[in-house]
Amino acid sequence: MKTKQTTLIIGIIVLVIIAAAIVVTSGKKKNDTMSVKPPSSAASSNAAVDSSQAVATASVTLENYAFSPATIKVKVGTTVNWTNKDTVHHSVVGDNSGLPNGPLFGQGETYKYTFTKAGTFTYHCAPHPYMHGSVVVTD
Ligand SMILES: [Cu+2]
Prior knowledge:
The protein is 39% helix and 28% strand. The chain is built from one helix and eight strands. The structure holds copper (II) ion. Copper (II) ion binds next to loops.
């Protein structure tokens, strides 16, 4: 009787150890999956950047006396198109950042500039100096 009980108890202990091992292993797998996810999402965002690099254009809208989006990130070689949706004229003028002083352009018109160097190019609108934007260009 005692031997059978001992065998049963040992059996239960072994099962508990196996169950614990499975839980630990599956827990590790979950952790591995979680640690893998950020790089894969980063890779997919890189893929998104790569696709924008292939298109090599980015768009900024001038509306309600503001640049939208105010900050954009692009790759070297990207042409940024600023389109004016306001009824007044706006411009894209570099804050001594390497971005040239663009001309005034009116409603429905687009000003284009191709970024050939990496860096952060801040700019404003000449008639409305409170309008600010920046283009972050990376290699
Ligand atoms: Cu303006």
